[in-house]
Structure formats: structure tokens, C-alpha cells
Design brief:
Length: 650
């Protein structure tokens, strides 16, 4: 399907790819992973022929159709949503538009009939029903189909273009961050659809749960090269760590051997009786094929963030609250209490009112009825895309971070900025030249460095790479305030949420457990089958004969987190086994460190030229000890590698 051979690409002094080769077979599902700026999107551009490599070949299978979804923007004119989704080729798009224009004006002339005939001939009327099913799966309503796409937000336009690609079913589907604009329910539908996709997939995504669900291989972009791994993302992490551990052990062992040979050459190279041996040792050194130390991926930076002042036990209350957009009611008389320390994720169909609820809690929207009551000492912070409007465009990134209410030092500011992709001289960029994603990340950094005790976050992981998501997870795990958030990143949700609030039909339903508990209790994994034909994005009007807030029943509460004795026993046994292996790994590491220190000490003793004249016997004894220690180190390193692999598998 796709063959890349000996590819080189650089921009000025910055090398992106150096002698890269890989092959993508028909039906393979592969993800490109690597830090932001590693060249993933540039590689996409070269495959698509939009950029030229400096050297090497990019070869696609002859006549293979390629579909591409860019990360941020896709073209849109006067087409309707269904015209975009049905426009699987330029001819399809042109004919569909011609037919639509005539039908809207009520004209049936020869040109109209010719367009209909040709559209029928190329299967256009078969494509349209498929496009509608896919649009519904991506949460479009039937009433949205004939809406001009330019009237939609950028995220919905991207969904329409994604629907076009899925309708066209190209042999190679290339998707750059396709989950950025999807809610949890449309994401679930999308994952199910991709599992049955017949073509080849090449993805860029920072959504670990999505990658684990969809892909069968990884292409890791690291330090100008591409390394291939089989399996999903979790398998890649395990195999990559094991490879690095093995390579590091081999590198250290070889370095010790080379150092020993070099010491011999240095000591005896000028001595007549040993010159021949020294020359032989030098040739041995020259013949050694060097094993490089592994170039490890960037590690997550764990920063100790400031903590907010404590709030009262009752953080915020919505009392019989109602809200409507013009004449369209969203909530009527809902009751909702937030307790200190809650970590709640809002879930539900797109258009159900999750973002509206977050804005009502933040005070961004004013209720049309009822009350929003803040608890004692509650300080609210709201993170959304609109938060970027609060940045000073004339300040640099570093100045903007240091302008918070409780300023931090430059070293701390730069460390945190680095973990959120502002590295090196990027901290001196003016806010006015930042992209939307960069401004969003900057707003996130400011919020974390001066946190409120009630933090409301709408899709905080958008525009973050995996290392930055880990940094955010670390910060929020240690956050001592109250958190309510919306996210489509299942990895992030599973790490942060302790309970779930489902928003649907103007009602709020609590689940007193984590996201997996919610899936089990609600049957959400199979929920797509119960959606209306037009999709999840329906008009939700609350029923007056129902309570607006549902709590868990006593049985639900009793079973929250319930585990059988067998489960508890198995988990305890697993913990004991893991602790035993961890202790073994630590014991081996201590032994290796002690032996390496001993080797260094022996090397210093052997470097004393007087020793060779005063006590040749001791020299021989020291050399024997060095050799024995080297053998012991190799044995310990081998044991350490195996113990580490067992620990990773537990």
C-alpha cells in the first residue's frame, strides 16, 4: 500500500528525518506517535505529495485512493452538510451541488435531468444514504443535513469532512488527531466504525484509549528515525521500555569492556615488553561495533503545583435552576450539589447541555430561573477555549505566566511551560503570534499555577501531546480542590474522575463510581443502538412529570466498587507478586551500583604507575578481580532485565 525508503527531510539546521524506511501493508492500522514537533504532520504532507523529501522515495500503490483529514482546518464554501458528506470525489460534489441548487429553486430543466442521470450512473444516490448514516453516527441531526456548513463551528465542519472520508472509503485513510472534535458518544461510534473499516489506516492521535482500541501497530518518531512496533499503544510502551533496557545494559557492558581495553593500551602501549599486546588490544577496540545508548523518549515533567485555599464542605449548589437559549429550554428546575473534593466528569450526548451546565456553574451564563449558590470561600476557575481572550497579546509567554496573582520564579515558570510544549526560546514568543492551541495551553498553565478551589474544565487535553497530558494528569491528581470537567479522552477520564454525572434530556443522573463503573451500570457501551435515526444530537426538552435529578439507589450505592472475595484475593496476590518483583529489581540495582563503584575504585588503583613496579602480584590480583566483577556485572544486568520485564507484565 505504502513504501517509504531512505527518506531525509530537514528545515534549515533542523533535521526531522534521517534515512527513514518503512512499509504499510493493505489492511494495516498503524499510528504515528512522538512528541509535538517530531515531524508527524510533515510526514503526512510528504505522503500526500504536498511536500517533497530532501532525499528518498515515497511510493503509493498504483490507483490507490487516499483520504486525508487535517488536524485543524478543512475547506468549506457554500455546501450543505450532506453535500460535503456525499462529495466523495470532485465529480460527486459538483453534481450533488448542481442537483441541490436546482431542487432548492424548484427548477427541473435538461441540465437538472442530465445531472441526475450522471449522478445515478456513478452511484451518487447510493452514497447519500450511507453519508446520512455516518453523519448520524457522528451526532448530526437530520435537520442539520441541509444546513450550510459555513454556519457551523469549526469542530462540526471537521466532523462533516470526516463523514465524507468515511463515506468514500479510500484504500488509505490518513487521519490527523481525528478525535479532537468528537464527544464521548460519537467517539464510541467512530471507534466501532473503524474496527470494521476495510482499508488501511495511518493515524496521528494523542488519545491512548482510542489507539488501544483501533490500531495494530505503532510507528514511533524518535530522534529523526522511525521505529516499528506490533500491537496497540500499551504493547508499544512495554516493548519500547524493554528494548531500551536491553540496549542500555548492552551499551554499559560494552563501555566497561572498551574502557578496560583502553586502560591496557594506555598503560602498556609504550612498554617494549607489552607493546605487541597493546597493539592487539587496540585492534580489538577498533573492530568493536559500538552499541549506542538508547535515545529515550521525553520524560514527563512532574511539577509540584501550588494548592488553592480550602473551601467549605458545600462548594456550590444549583437550586431549582432553569435555563433556556431564547425559546429553547435546556434545564428546568434542576437541583445539583457539589461537595468538597468531588472529581466529576460530565458525560452525555452532544447537544445535551454539558458545556451549558459547566458555564452555569462558572457563572458565565445567567440562569432564567432558580439560584446558583456558592459555598463558603469557594473560588471558581473556568477553563474553556474562550479563556484565551483573557491573555494579554503584547506580553511574552513567560511574562504572561509570571503575571498571575501569586507569581512564581522564572525557573519554575519555564519548567511548567516546558511540560506543556513551550520549550527553549518559545517562552519569549508574543502571545499575539500564538496559535489557538498554544493560547489554550498557556491559559491552562496559568490556571494550574494559580488554581481556584473549584476548577471547571471543558476538554482540557485538546492540543496536548501525550507527555503534556501526563503532566496535566499528575497536576490534577495532586490538586486538593474540587474538579468538574468534560473530556472525550478516556485515558484522562479514567485517571481523574471519581464519579460521573450523565446529562441527558434536561436531567442529571449521578453515578457514585468511576467511568468504568458508569459504563457497567448504564450500559453506555451499547447505547448507540438506542439512539434515534437522526443521531444523538437531538433537541432535549425536559419532561415536567419527572424529577430533574436522579441519585443512585441504595442498591447502586451498595454495589459501587463492590468486589467479590475471589476478586479481592486475586488482587491481593497480584499486589504481593508485584511488590516481590519490585523488591528484586531494587536489590539488583543496588548490587549493580555497588559493583560499578567497586570497578571505579579498582580502576583508580590500577592507574597508579608505581604499583606495577612495587607490587606486580597485586596488579595481577586487581586485574583478576576486575575481570570477575565484569562477569558478575553482566550476570546481574541480565537478571535485572528479566526482572524488569516481569515487573512490566504484572
Amino acid at each position: 500500500m505504502l513504501q517509504i525508503s531512505g527518506l531525509h527531510k530537514a528545515f534549515g539546521a533542523q533535521t526531522l528525518f534521517e534515512n527513514v524506511s518503512f512499509r504499510l501493508e493493505r489492511g494495516e492500522r498503524v499510528a504515528l506517535v512522538g512528541p509535538n514537533g517530531a515531524g508527524k504532520t510533515t510526514l503526512f504532507s510528504m505522503i500526500l505529495g504536498e511536500a517533497e523529501p530532501d532525499d528518498g522515495m515515497v511510493e503509493l500503490e498504483k490507483n490507490a485512493k487516499v483520504g486525508h483529514l487535517p488536524q485543524e482546518t478543512a475547506p468549506v464554501g457554500d455546501e450543505t452538510v450532506i453535500e460535503i458528506a456525499s462529495g466523495v470525489s470532485p465529480e460527486h460534489a459538483a453534481l450533488r451541488k448542481t442537483i441541490g441548487d436546482f431542487e432548492r429553486e424548484g427548477i427541473e430543466n435538461d441540465e437538472y435531468h442530465e445531472a441526475v442521470a450522471r449522478y445515478t450512473e456513478i452511484g451518487g444516490f447510493e452514497i447519500e444514504p450511507r453519508a446520512k448514516r455516518i453523519l448520524s453516527g457522528l451526532s448530526f441531526r437530520e435537520s442539520d443535513f441541509d444546513q450550510p456548513a459555513r454556519t457551523l463551528s469549526g469542530g462540526w465542519i471537521m466532523r462533516a469532512h470526516l463523514a465524507r472520508l468515511l463515506t468514500a472509503e479510500p484504500e488509505l485513510l490518513m487521519l490527523d488527531e481525528p478525535t479532537n472534535h468528537l464527544d464521548l458518544e460519537s467517539l464510541q461510534w467512530f471507534q466501532n466504525h473503524l474496527r470494521g473499516y476495510r482499508g488501511s489506516l495511518l493515524l496521528i492521535s494523542h488519545d491512548r484509549a482510542f489507539l488501544n482500541d483501533v490500531i495494530s501497530g505503532i510507528l514511533e518518531v524518535r530522534h529523526h528515525r522511525i521505529h516499528s512496533y506490533k500491537g496497540n499503544y500499551d504493547a508499544y510502551l512495554t516493548e519500547s521500555a524493554a528494548r531500551d533496557a536491553q540496549q542500555l545494559a548492552a551499551h554499559r557492558s560494552q563501555e566497561r569492556k572498551i574502557a578496560q581495553l583502553e586502560r591496557f593500551v594506555e598503560r602498556f602501549g609504550a612498554k617494549a615488553t607489552k607493546a605487541a599486546q597493546a597493539k592487539s588490544k587496540q585492534k580489538q577496540i577498533d573492530r568493536i561495533e559500538r552499541i549506542d545508548a538508547p535515545q529515550t523518549a521525553e520524560k514527563t515533567i512532574h511539577v509540584k503545583f501550588p494548592q488553592p485555599s480550602p473551601s467549605g464542605q458545600k462548594v456550590i449548589t444549583l437550586d431549582k435552576l432553569s435555563f433556556a437559549y431564547d425559546t429553547k429550554p435546556v434545564y428546568e428546575g434542576i437541583n445539583f450539589n457539589v461537595e468538597k473534593g468531588d472529581r466529576t466528569v460530565l458525560v452525555g450526548p452532544n447537544g445535551a447541555g454539558k458545556s451549558t451546565l459547566l458555564k452555569l456553574l462558572a457563572g458565565v451564563l445567567t440562569p432564567t430561573g432558580g439560584e446558583r449558590i456558592l459555598g463558603h470561600n469557594t473560588k471558581v476557575g473556568y477553563f474553556s477555549q474562550n479563556r484565551i481572550d483573557m491573555l494579554d497579546p503584547q506580553k511574552t509567554v513567560l511574562e504572561e505566566v509570571q503575571s498571575i496573582r501569586r507569581p512564581v520564579g522564572e525557573a519554575m515558570a519555564r519548567t511548567v511551560l516546558g511540560s506543556f510544549l513551550f520549550r527553549g526560546d518559545a517562552v519569549f514568543k508574543k502571545v499575539t503570534v500564538l496559535s489557538g492551541g498554544e493560547k489554550s495551553r498557556l491559559g491552562l498553565v496559568k490556571l494550574l499555577l494559580d488554581p481556584p478551589n473549584l476548577l471547571l474544565m471543558d476538554e482540557p487535553t485538546t492540543h496536548l501531546d501525550m507527555a503534556s497530558i501526563d503532566a496535566l494528569v499528575h497536576a490534577l491528581k495532586n490538586y486538593q480542590g474540587t474538579l468538574i470537567f468534560i473530556s472525550h479522552d478516556v485515558y484522562f477520564i479514567r485517571n481523574i474522575a471519581r464519579n460521573v454525572l450523565r446529562v441527558s434530556g434536561g436531567e442529571l443522573t449521578r453515578f457514585a463510581g468511576d467511568y468504568d463503573y458508569y459504563l457497567r451500570k448504564s450500559g453506555a457501551e451499547g447505547e448507540r443502538s438506542g439512539l434515534t435515526e437522526s443521531g444523538a444530537m437531538q433537541d432535549f426538552r425536559p419532561s415536567h412529570d419527572k424529577a430533574n435529578t436522579k441519585g443512585n439507589t441504595a442498591a447502586d450505592t451498595a454495589t459501587a466498587g463492590f468486589k467479590s472475595k475471589e476478586q479481592k484475593r486475586a488482587e491481593a496476590e497480584q499486589r504481593r507478586a508485584r511488590a516481590k518483583i519490585r523488591a528484586e529489581v531494587e536489590r539488583l540495582e543496588q548490587q549493580i551500583c555497588k559493583l560499578e563503584e567497586k570497578q571505579t575504585q579498582l580502576s583508580h588503583e590500577l592507574e597508579d604507575p608505581l604499583l606495577y613496579e612495587s607490587d606486580p602480584g597485586k596488579v595481577m590480583e586487581l586485574n583478576r578481580t576486575v575481570v570477575a566483577n565484569n562477569d558478575k556485572l553482566e550476570e546481574l544486568n541480565e537478571k535485572w532485565i528479566k526482572a524488569t520485564e516481569r515487573f512490566e507484565q504484572e
